[in-house]
Amino acid sequence: MGDKDDRSPKKKKGATKDMDDLKKEVPITEHKMSVEEVCRKFQTDIVQGLTNAKAAEFLIRDGPNALTPPPTTPEWVKFCRQLFGGFSILLWTGAILCFLAYAIQAATEDDPAGDNLYLGIVLTAVVIITGCFSYFQEAKSSKIMESFKNMVPQQALVIREGEKVQINAEEVVAGDLIEVKGGDRIPADIRVVSAHGCKVDNSSLTGESEPQNRSPDCTHDNPLETRNIAFFSTNCVEGTARGLVICTGDRTVMGRIATLTSGLETGKTPIAKEIEHFIHIITGVAVFLGVTFFILAIILGYSWLEAVIFLIGIIVANVPEGLLATVTVCLTLTAKRMAKKNCLVKNLEAVETLGSTSTICSDKTGTLTQNRMTVAHMWFDNQIHEADTTEDQSGASFDKSSVTWLSLARVAGLCNRAQFKGGQDSLPILKRDVAGDASESALLKCIELSCGSVRVMRDKNKKVAEIPFNSTNKYQLSVHETEDPNDNRYLLVMKGAPERILDRCTTILLQGKEQPMDEELKEAFQNAYMELGGLGERVLGFCHVLLPEDQYPKGFAFDTDDVNFQTDNLCFVGLMSMIDPPRAAVPDAVGKCRSAGIKVIMVTGDHPITAKAIAKGVGIISEGNETVEDIAARLNIPVSQVNPRDAKACVIHGTDLKDLSQDQMDDILRNHTEIVFARTSPQQKLIIVEGCQRLGAIVAVTGDGVNDSPALKKADIGVAMGISGSDVSKQAADMILLDDNFASIVTGVEEGRLIFDNLKKSIAYTLTSNIPEITPFLLFIIVNIPLPLGTITILCIDLGTDMVPAISLAYEMAESDIMKRQPRNPTRDKLVNERLISIAYGQIGMIQALGGFFSYFVILAENGFLPSILVGIRLNWDNRSVNDLEDSYGQQWTYEQRKIVEFTCHTAFFVSIVVVQWADVIICKTRRNSVFQQGMKNKILIFGLFEETALAAFLSYCPGMDVALRMYPLKPTWWFCAFPYSFLIFVYDEVRKLLLRRNPGGWVEKETYY
Amino acid sequence: MDLVVLVAFSSWLAPALASAGDKDKDNDSAFNYDYESLRIGGLVFAVVLFLMGIALIVTRKCTCSKSDKSRSREPNVESGVPRA
User: What is the pLDDT of residue A11?
Assistant: First the structure.
């Protein structure tokens, strides 16, 4: 960092090398240098700061101190992606083929039929309209994204030429001397040169939930761990610090992560892959049919050009015109349903991804936990008490009647500098903002909740003197007047590291009575301390003493620098321990994920002990499962002797992860079901996600911090937190939980699985009608009958009557408990497989075609053309100059009369398809269950049935349709021609499903379960 | 529901039956079909079906409103306070 070649604009050739470079750990070295060396390096002065001239020079050299926004795709590119992506390609190909066929016809015939032209135009229109629709859908969610952006420009206090100036954070340059104080956001990566009680909140960068101290000394080789570096865009919680800027803009640690994130390539979504697979199958079928009939046509003696027209016609007829719209609408409906449940999906295709997810890598801080310290346990009266850590205070409470508890509460309330910010009296206590340190705030809230107003308590016990916490003392004390105005004694209260507090105590408060501290009690204390510490909690000890009046009379001048009063021989009151507790809904959600066959891995920047405690708390490490270390401790043998296969759970430290080879990594991910990664850097999170993906898992990553964003981007689906999440993480994610509730992920999984099943049904339904649409054309070519079904009527089915029923299947309920089965195997369980095609095309579709042809022959026979005469009649039938064509009874028909009968047949064929599609939509409701088990609760589907029938009747009977679409009114009896076939379809499929249920794993299931 | 279906069917069959009634004057009656009343009947049928479908959707919202209460709640966007 900091060298000049690093600043040269990224060249394309070096782009991949840069990415690898970014994946490595942070190369900051300034923390190991002395302040003078740093000053020399940046040509700055420790007192005066940079000169204005130098600052201006550096600003030009390094550019502004801001993150380069990720390259945004221009709107038109996004639009084109919608227009030409995935499924649309199929329709575009169809449209182009149509225009080609029309061009051939126009060039060779005098009076070409307009069918191909219309079809081409309609196909184009469908793609464009659907493209616009999904474009606007996504634009809507990206608009919500925009609203997340924090527009407030940051200010920074810099010292230049010895003067303090407030400048825009963007103008800060490397070498600037900067001052930060509590509440500020740190404007760049700085090397701390002096600090007063400075604490920074690094949670968005490292995942540590506790604020970290900052001081000028180098405490660790790792720049992320050392105390003398503060990072760009983390927050200073309290205290003040002065530091030298060492990196700005994209070269900061934060900037590197952001650059890494935006540079990552993401693969296709699972549903996009499925649709691609589907297109392959459809194209295969279409080309196979087309070529077969092309050869047949040639053999039958058609001309080359005619055969080519047929070829194109058959290929295009295989394109399911309505399916693109159906799929888009189904996904949109699910996206809307999820938005209602507070899951905002940025990319429509990501709707399904959670359903296919087999591994969830979750961040801890802020995702699984509440990201606020809370008092979890207390030890007093020689007993551990559990405090209520739930967000809504619904948990169990402890016995508050003990006198010791009142004393403990008093110490914790008085020896505490945190206070509520003003004007929040109407808010619930837990929601109020607190000025002060995280653990003091936790104590404050805990006391306020259980003992009433702390302010009143502090007013009653006026503070006389105070020694704030510092790292050498490891305690904090204050001296107060007592509540009783007649009592002139002073109360000394102290809190701090438990072992230091214990050292100062000679007595202990038990049931309100002071008792001498004996060895037994000391051991009890040790045990309690160990136990709470083992839970990953931060433990504080509390003690007090009433100072004797004779030594410290009223008005005694307490000197806190010189400590002229008693600070030992105190009375120990108790311990309180704090943790960032898990969110209430998380354990349940983790349990549900697990029963849904999803592996939940915790990946956190926090310490292993805390991570493990939380993992156990939320069920990521389930009860009774041990890590290698646990087994070693239980059996009292060295860790190396434990067979790692015996341990289902494991906790892996980031530093160990660094040394692991890819094979070892795969081994861990494969053999342990419950994994916790602690102390991981953002780069390592990325490696973990890549490792899971390498093993074939579809990975979801949840996180809120900047440190999660590379992993969020790399994951198949990144889930960011809407309230607590950082901008960078939200940009990188595909889905945003608007209420920060991890449980919403379960909803996402459920909806994703449901839509996958329902899309199968929709597709099966839509594809079925392809067969009755193609076969007329095939028979028209092969046996020369008058065309039974025209292009316009086909379009009326695909884009008219079939649409609502197909979409209504998206509202279908799950057939069984979808949260109890394993995630689908992306290599085996396809959206569309041969079995689905065989059912739709080979079985149901064929029956439908029979139904259609039956109506066709009935109508022609009623008009005098018996089926026997029809074969081979086509050339005369379609010949304009033949106006005396005789039917089976010797009646003569003019061209125009014949055509009216033909188009009436088209209409009847169309109506027949509608009738058989009734049965089809009902059988497509379920894949395994009987309709009688599933019920007809889907009102949209019933609406669809009504609507398609109404539309069919309308198209047939509306005056003017004979001119507009060449559809003619049908006699009522003709409607019933296809009824038996409709019934047959229903019975056929019910029997199939019955066999399927009766013989699980049997032949029927293997061959027909899609 | 059964009643509604019955009404729909009768509305559709009525003109067909009516048209069957007044074929008295022509020997060629088998070749003359009253397409006018067929059209009207068909259209009435279509409209009735369509309205029934709409009615179905409208009632859906009322009867099921208790089962999804979350319907009215919009995603709470403004509470998003970015942290980093």
Answer: 38
In a 3-state reduction of DSSP, which class is residue A911? helix
Q: Provide mean pLDDT across the span A898-914.
A: 95
ipTM confidence score: 0.74
Read off the DSSP letter of residue A609: H
Pairing of strands A570-579, A505-510: parallel
- Name the one residue in this structure whose structure tokens are 């321990």: A577
Choosing from A250, A363, A704, A887, the catalytic residue is A363
pTM for the full predicted model: 0.83
Which chain B residues are within 8 Å of A205, Cβ to Cβ? 84
Q: Are A922 and A900 in contact (CB under 8 A)?
A: no
Kindly report the number of other CB atoms within 10 A of residue A828's CB atom: 7
Question: Distance between CA A173 and CA A177 in Å, rounded?
Answer: 9
Neighbours of A523 (CB within 10 A): 10
Q: In chain B, which residue's Cα lies nearest the Cα of A149?
A: B82
**What single-letter DSSP state applies at residue A839?**
I
pLDDT for residue A966 is more than 70? yes
Determine whether A231 is exposed, middle or buried from the number of CB atoms within 10 Å of its CB (0-12, 13-18, 19+): buried
Residue numbers in B near A234 (CB within 8 A): 84
Closest CA to A44 of A199, A178, A222: A178
Q: In sequence order, what are the residues at sequence separation of 6 or more whose Cβ sits closer than 8 angstroms to the Cβ of residue A614?
A: A364, A368, A369, A536, A579, A580, A582, A602, A620
What's at A6, amino acid-wise? D
Q: Which of A991, A999, A1001, A992 is nearest to A838 (CA)?
A: A992
∠A43-A44-A49 over CA atoms, to 5°?
A: 160
Partner-chain contact A723 B80, CB within 8 Å: yes
User: CA-to-CA distance for A843 and A992, rounded, in angstroms?
Assistant: 11
For residue A196, the SS3 value is strand
In this structure, which amino acid lies at residue B6?
L
Q: Where are the alpha helices (DSSP H) in A300-429?
A: 304-317, 323-340, 350-356, 403-414
In three-state secondary structure terms, A849 is: helix
DSSP state of A820: G
The amino acid occupying position A790 is G
Q: What digits encode the pLDDT tens for the residues A426-456? A: 888 877 888 777 788 888 888 888 888 888 8
User: What does the pLDDT look like over A318-350, one tens digit per residue?
Assistant: 888 888 889 999 999 999 999 998 888 888 888
What is the separation of C-alpha A980 from the centre of its chain, rounded to a whole number of angstroms? 48
